[in-house]
Design a protein that fits this description.
Length: 109
């Protein structure tokens, strides 16, 4: 009987852990304070465009967290000086497995 309770507890704990992960990943949908992010579609993928108000550094860049199926990778956008347009990063996939932006972050340079 003890084994059954142990297996049941592990199953409930695993189910709880799987339900928490998507909620934690949803936190990447918001831009940091002073920045405005917008997602857009590209052929077989998705991109992120971020504009920020002037900060303490020279400029900023966006880093997109991309996924397609079970593959995950990062795409680093080009550095952009403050006041000269948005920083852009694009996740490109393939015909049958399009990529998407799961989350993103902004690095000050």
């Amino acid at each position: 009987m003890l084994r059954k309770w142990a297996v049941f507890a592990i199953a409930v704990f695993s189910l709880f852990g799987l339900s928490v992960v998507p909620a934690a990943a949803a936190g990447g949908d918001f831009a940091p304070p002073g920045c405005f992010g917008e997602r857009y579609g590209i052929l077989f993928g998705q991109g992120i465009s971020v504009s920020c108000f002037p900060g303490e550094g020279y400029g900023y860049r966006v880093i997109a967290h991309c996924s397609t199926g079970s593959a995950f990778w990062y795409v680093v956008g080009d550095p952009v000086p403050y006041g000269f347009g948005p920083a852009v990063a694009e996740c490109s996939g393939a015909l049958l497995v399009p990529a998407r932006v799961v989350a993103y972050r902004v690095d000050e340079i």
